[in-house]
Amino acid sequence: MIRPDTEAELSAAIKEARGPLRIIGGGTRSIGRAQGDFLSTAGLSGISLYEPGALTIVAGAGTPLAEVEAALTAENQRLPFEPPQMGALTGKTGASTIGGVVAANASGPRRIQAGACRDSLIGVRFVDGRGDIIKNGGRVMKNVTGYDLVKLLAGSQGSLGVISEVAFKVLPGVEATATVVVHGLDDQSAVEAMSTALGSPYEVSGAAHDPARQTTMLRLEGFAESVAYRSKKLQETLKRFGDVSADVNADWTAIRDASMFAGGSGDVWRISVKPSDGPSVGAALDGCKIIYDWGGGLIWAEVPSAFDLRGVMGGIKGHATLVRGQGCGPVFHPEPAPVAALSKGVRRQFDPRGILNAGIMD
């Protein structure tokens, strides 16, 4: 395994590579079928700048996510997008890194309110397939390509460049949390209830539904007095859907990490659709274990090994990504031909030799 300890060493390793490189951080959220020698970013670790007053943090790509979150917690601050920990789901034992979070654009339940990882990312440094060091955003802007590299790198799965450093805007911590729970709803009614809550003025920061338990969860966060008031008003708003109660101890980490699928033997898929189409996906996967997040727009599903999930979804528009298992077909959702050609062209610009996570999108 190649394990550079500095950005200069990372650049040299890529320049000297004679074959494909498989990029890993902590290895907990690695998906796809990349090939080649392992190139680890674990040595590029450490928080290089943290200014709580400016709500800004800068860290090396290999910095453990837990280290970043601990530093923020000490100052009563947080990453806005609530990054999930995928180790339990994928069965991998490494420590999630902040660079891996960016490479996957990993975003938790709070995405519906605070946006995705890329929306909080304000700067990035990376090494492209030529071995050139590129920086974009943050305190220094160098964007000779014309691309918004900060947004482009987030979710690129290491196929455009190897991230060496990231910079985020952060938010103050949460004083109080409450969850309004609606009991006994089917999937269609649950999505309607979640849509009603999200369209209300009560600032819902999480909206999830567990079909097996028939529980629909709406999270409220903020100052204690405000949370108590909004919880009461939201319960009144949702009474027409059925039995409503409040729960101050609801476990959102299980929703965030999809840990209810940990230890299973089936394939696990992450499906993104319009919330109104969520119940149709649920109906198509009747008998399979599923969880709805993001108001019904994100569905985690565990299906039998090699199950043709995309085929069963039929004409439902969206994206399905294989997170665990062998699956049926490509790991990432096939792109329409014009988009695929554009994506290939962008990858060729940044990685002309095609050595960075080669095959990951196949």
- Secondary-structure-based class equals alpha+beta
N→C terminal distance: 23 Å
Count of separate DSSP helical elements: 13
- Mean pLDDT across every amino acid position: 93
Classify the beta-strand content into a percent band: 25-35%
Low-confidence stretches: 139-145
At the first level of CATH, the class of the domain at 7-172 is Alpha Beta
Main β sheet profile: 5 strands, antiparallel
Rg estimate, integer Å: 21 Å
Helix content range: 25-40%
Spatial order of strands in the largest sheet: 3-4-8-6-7
Q: Give helix and strand order, one letter per element, not per position.
A: HEEEEHEHHHHEEHEEEHEEHEHEHEEHEH
Extended strand count: 17
**Which CATH-level-2 architecture of the domain at 7-172?**
2-Layer Sandwich
Shape: globular
> What is the CATH topology assignment of the domain at 7-172?
Uridine Diphospho-n-acetylenolpyruvylglucosamine Reductase, domain 3
Summarize the structure.
This protein is an alpha+beta fold. It has 13 helices and 17 strands.
Structure commentary:
Helices cover 28% and strands 26% of the residues. The protein has helices at 7-16, 65-74, 87-90, 98-104, 111-114, 117-120, 149-153, 187-198, 224-238, 252-257, 278-284, 309-313, 337-350; strands spanning 21-24, 37-40, 47-51, 56-60, 77-78, 121-127, 133-137, 162-169, 171-172, 176-183, 204-210, 215-222, 243-247, 267-273, 289-293, 298-303, 318-324. A 5-stranded antiparallel sheet has the order 3-4-8-6-7. The radius of gyration is 21 Å and the shape is globular. It starts with 6 loop residues before the first helix and ends in a 12-residue tail after the last helix. The relative contact order is 0.14.
